[in-house]
Amino acid sequence: MNLDQALEYVLKGEALLFLGAGFSKGAINSNHEQVKDAKELSQKLFEEMGMPYDPEKSLNVISEYFQKKEGRARLLELLRDEYSIKEVTETHKTIMKYNWKRIYTTNYDDAAEQASIENGIYRIPVTLSNKLDQTKDRREIVIHLNGFIEDMVEDTLNKEVKLTKVSYALESLEENQWVTVLKKDIEEAEVIIFIGYSLTYDIDLQRIIIKNSDNRDKIYFINGEVDEIDRVVIEQYGHIEPLYSEDLAQLLVKKEREMKSSG
After folding, report:
1. Cβ atoms within 10 Å, residue 125
2. Smaller CB count within 10 Å for the chain: N or C?
């Protein structure tokens, strides 16, 4: 299968979508700034504490330290300001207008939901702490694997939001009830599109995908330019397309026109 054929499955509603930090690029948050990626959030936390930025400290380590030093309430306030989306781009809106079989994201923000609303589509945000009820059978949900900004409260910050070292240690994806839904979705989807998503550090998802060697042929990574090291890792799990999300959006629109004109 090539990318052009994969796009047909997207338009037929038979494709699964995974969103990483790269998808949210360009979205505007409550601070009227572009939403931050992991590195930029780390820099922000150091700045808030009046400390020089140390790139050797991972986000989960500095987040835990920030929580101890500045308090859980302040961390929560900062996260809400950073990841509550007020404005999305045309690219976001284009990608989210299609009938995806299901949407998964590692992002805390609500860019996917806001872009869907712009298209008159209401998608329900779900986290791994939600019970498996009728929701699991619906297409119109966005499953937030690392937590969701609107559900964040002080009492459950470390348990539900994958940010600090403590939160990552509490539960793995493989131990969660939603993993059954994820495995079934991956198995049944004709195509799986990853946008701005790096599998390099997502060990749980790597294990699920690699268990079936047939998955590789139907997986496409839209991550822009990828360096040689990441390419070696990612190519084990799927095809790498040298495209950005805006390129994908344009290709989808073009493919949609072609399919309509051909009847």
Report:
1. 18
2. C
Q: Is 59 helix (H, G, I), strand (E, B) or coil?
A: helix
**Same domain for 48 and 69?**
yes
Q: Specify whether 234 is located in the same domain as 199.
A: yes
Q: For the whole model, what pTM was predicted?
A: 0.89
What are the backbone angles phi and psi of residue 21, rounded to the nearest 5°?
-60, -30
Of the candidates 25, 42, 43, the one whose C-alpha atom is nearest the C-alpha of residue 34 is 25
Instruction: List pLDDT tens digits, range 80-100.
Output: 999 999 999 999 999 999 999
Residues 10, 54: one domain? no
β-strand partners of 85: 29
* Residues 18, 195 contacting (CB under 8 angstroms): yes
Name residue 239's beta-bridge partners: 220
Amino acid at 148: F
Tell me the CA distances in angstroms from 97 to 13, 28, 252, one per residue in order. Answer: 11, 19, 10
233 near 262, Cβ under 8 Å? no
Q: What confidence score (pLDDT) does residue 226 get?
A: 82
Q: Which long-range contacts (CB under 8 A, 24 or more apart) does 225-230 make?
A: 230/198, 230/200
46 Cβ contact list (under 8 Å, min separation 6) = 52, 53, 54, 62
The Cα–Cα gap between 95 and 164 comes to 30
Rounded CA separation 37/40 (Å): 5
